[in-house]
Automatic annotation (TrEMBL), chains A, B:
GO biological process: glutathione metabolic process; L-phenylalanine catabolic process
One Pfam family here: GST_C_2
Family statement: Belongs to the GST superfamily. Zeta family.
Cellular component terms (Gene Ontology): cytoplasm
GST C-terminal domain boundaries: 87-215
Molecular function per GO: glutathione transferase activity; maleylacetoacetate isomerase activity
Species, as recorded: Pollutimonas subterranea
Domain GST N-terminal: 1-82
Matching InterPro entries: Glutathione-S-Trfase_C-like (IPR010987), Glutathione-S-Trfase_C_sf (IPR036282), Glutathione_S-Trfase (IPR040079), Glutathione_S-Trfase_N (IPR004045), GST_Zeta (IPR005955), GST_Zeta_C (IPR034330), GST_Zeta_N (IPR034333), Thioredoxin-like_sf (IPR036249)
Protein name: Maleylacetoacetate isomerase
Alphabetized Gene3D superfamilies for the sequence: 1.20.1050.10, Glutaredoxin (3.40.30.10)
CDD domains xrefs: GST_C_Zeta, GST_N_Zeta
Length: 215, 215
């Protein structure tokens, strides 16, 4: 398998964690989101993935974009170790946390959105960072509320095995720290993040550990 | 089952279509996103769903938020008629289209985002509408590129049965029309939208057919 991505993309980071947790070897193909006016916007990447977003997973000549669809595909084709519980309501809880991060936090703070704020709406650096922190802090506070004190929350977001929810949470927190978000009132998600950081699958997926990492 | 939603929420609209396609009866509980400073932001809704977003599905005292998690839950607990194909790669294709709409088009044009643009960034009406059209048109053009000429595209997004992809596409197109987006160069998605519009499940889920509909 090949994974087209960018070291800092938190969507690519999710897929890297899942591949590692499932012990699936893959080849990294870097797509630099800033160089050449954005390598994701032009051929050959655009032909592989018309959404012009990373990541894309490739198996032979078959390609699949969209990180959440990739997670489900990996779960269906390589079910062990599982990243979803067995029970339908428990699976739903894990997916609700993961999807909330993927749909309702991450897209608002994507690189292309920050670029639009700066170049089209002429928003200054301070207001752009306030935008970032607003959505990240509001969103992560909701994740904290979903997890804190819930009987199904364990060492990880759901019980004592990592799931889709942790796979999405950890990259979002890495991003939030990069933008100096205030995580002080979020003891549950920072505790879970620290537990994940002890696992090689998460360590090896970190942006700084990627072949295209920059300072 | 109870579905907490708002007639114009395209996330709630997705779930309404899926419930109808699966012939599952449900009770609508309106949550007015504009009245009372936003009924989704306060008790009792906030206690039901700490993300303060609609929709939420409730069964007895169990509640599930996040439309994409709800779709997967309904598919797992009420598999017939299916809204996903059987083959893993085909399922992945359907999910990639659906998730691209849910993660990469819809959240940027959500009510809370448009409110932030207006009230916090003091963006004028014209620039706010340009923002909307930018993300909707760019995103829907990518969906058109994923569907047009693809051998798996049929009467609907995937073959001749409605799937998660159609469930997500139709509400997004309804929204795009409301904001006067240019859909002229998107013959495939507008053809599929017209095919869906012939089905009672889609008709009965439309915003104008809801008990809380306003002019």
């Amino acid at each position: 398998m090949k994974l087209y991505g960018y070291f800092r993309s938190s969507a690519a980071y999710r897929v890297r964690i899942a591949l590692n947790l499932k012990n699936l070897p893959y080849e990294t193909v870097p797509v630099h989101l800033l160089k050449d006016g954005g390598q994701q916007l032009a051929a050959p990447y655009r032909e592989l993935n018309p959404t012009c977003l990373v990541p894309t997973l490739q198996e032979g000549d078959w390609a699949l974009g969209q990180s959440m669809a990739i997670l489900e595909y990996l779960e269906e084709t390589h079910p062990n170790p599982p990243l979803l519980p067995v029970d339908a309501r428990q699976r739903a809880r894990v997916r609700a946390i993961a999807q909330f991060i993927a749909c309702d936090i991450h897209p608002l703070n994507n690189l292309r959105v920050l670029k639009y704020l700066k170049h089209e709406l002429k928003v200054d650096e301070e207001a752009k960072n306030a935008w970032y922190r607003h959505w990240a802090e509001q969103g992560l506070a909701a994740v904290e509320a979903m997890l804190a004190g819930h009987p199904a929350t364990g060492r990880y977001c759901h019980g004592d095995q990592p799931s889709f929810a942790d796979v999405c949470l950890v990259p979002q927190l890495a991003n939030a720290r990069r933008f100096n978000c205030d995580l002080g009132a979020m003891p549950t998600i920072t505790r879970i993040d620290a537990a994940c950081a002890e696992l090689p699958a998460f360590q090896q997926a970190a942006p700084g550990s990627q072949p295209d990492a920059e300072a």
